[in-house]
Amino acid sequence: MTPQAKARPVLTEGPIGKTLFLFSLPILLGNVLQSLNGSINSIWVGKFLGETALAATSNANIILFFLLSLIFGISMAAVILVGQNLGAKKVDEAKRVVGTSTTFFALASIIVGLLGIVFSPHILDLLNTPADARELAIAYTRIIFAGIPFMFGYNLVMAVLRGSGDAKTPFYFLLLSAVFDVALNPLLIAGIGPFPKMGISGSATATFIAQLLSFVLLLIYLYAKKYFLRITKNDLHLLKLDWPLIGLLIRKGLPMGLNMVVVSLSNLVLIHIVNAFGSEASAAFGVANQISSYVQMPAMAIGGAVTSMAAQNIGAGKWDRVSRVTWIGVGFNVALTGSLVAIIHLFNRQALGLFLPLEGKAIDLGVHINNLTLWSFIIFGIFNVVAGVVRSAGAVIVPLVVSSIALLLVRIPFASYFSSHYGFDMIWWSFPISFAIAAGLNVLYYRFGNWRKAHLMDAAKRAKPAQ
């Protein structure tokens, strides 16, 4: 075995609990970092430019979330396919996935970026962007679209690294990007020192520069370290539009991306229902939602980690380890999410007081909402972890259907009907009820479904063109 091969992260051997924890930790820290980065940048925009500019960035971020949802799904499909091939010790096949994905992501990002720059005004009009924020939103959105190639590129490289078992490197360069972004925002917004005063365009330009620098430096680092899945001059023939493989990545990736869209749509409809109870209820829900986004992060990180880990073990045919990965992942979720929920319950009013006045109806409502909903995110974590393992085999439709049933067909009708008949609290009871249904259905599918027969690598092999 070469020194390079020995240095590769291996998820098919060794203690599962320790490996899963150490693999999950950088993903968790990365999720926290991205949320903090967005929050700090919003503070800069609000402080220097006011509420109208903040509304402009909010509208632009809706578009960005939609694009990220779709690209997240396809990059997750690459994670799974790379992981399965490495588990089966098929490095050449993993490189084929990398080469095709690189070409596809490069072309898709350029097309999306150009279309976004040209049609930003029309897209923002479709979102019914407030008239006073429209011009600011256009300026901000066009620069964000210009940075799409670097954002897509970073997401692909991060997916390949995680698929090969490396979660640390993506975190380090995500940290670097966040530092650049947070530091450059006030400098370019306000024109501090030698920097030009660019207003809202400065915020978008800071993000653009941060993404560009971190992406380029990440590539330089990987080639300097001779990362084993890098594309060398001998692999240039892999940089092609392998349409059967691209079709497979899209078929498996879009359902995972649409799952994020389902979650977002469910939250938007829920906001609409809450708004009917007045501005104090809306403010309380908005703040409670911010806190719950952090509570979800351990489950999201563990879900991502078990997907990579299970994919490699499925490729290696180690189904006993896949089962242990699943239930150790569920145990970690219960312990970590449960601990976080307990801490927030102890300091409930203080946590909400970071965003709301310490006295008044809004903070009382926020405390009440957290008391009813936070514990249910332990159940959310169970369905997320189990779904992550199922997806790692390439079975992506059933988890999407389960999420759609739980969040759109159960949660929303329940919250809407029962809140209008029995009061405000019924909205919050829709959380544990919908999460419990999702967890139950996913566990049943895990136990009795045919997800183990998805044969993703076989589908990829059939997609391979004749030599």
Automatic annotation (TrEMBL):
GO molecular function: antiporter activity; xenobiotic transmembrane transporter activity
One Pfam family linked to the record: MatE
Record keyword Lipid biosynthesis present: no
A GO cellular-component term linked to this record: plasma membrane
Domain of life, per lineage: Bacteria
Bilayer disposition of the protein: Multi-pass membrane protein
Residue ranges crossing the lipid bilayer per the database entry: 20-40, 60-83, 104-124, 136-159, 171-192, 204-224, 258-277, 297-315, 327-347, 367-386, 393-414, 426-446
InterPro entries for this protein: MATE_fam, MdtK-like, Membrane_Transporter-Flippase
Keyword Cell inner membrane: no
Keyword list, A-Z: Cell membrane, Membrane, Transmembrane, Transmembrane helix, Transport
Span of the signal peptide: none
Entry's localization field: Cell membrane
PANTHER family named in the record: MULTIDRUG RESISTANCE PROTEIN YPNP-RELATED
Matching NCBIfam families: matE
Name used for this protein in its record: MATE family efflux transporter
Protein species of origin: Paenibacillus cremeus
Lineage: Bacteria, Bacillati, Bacillota, Bacilli, Bacillales
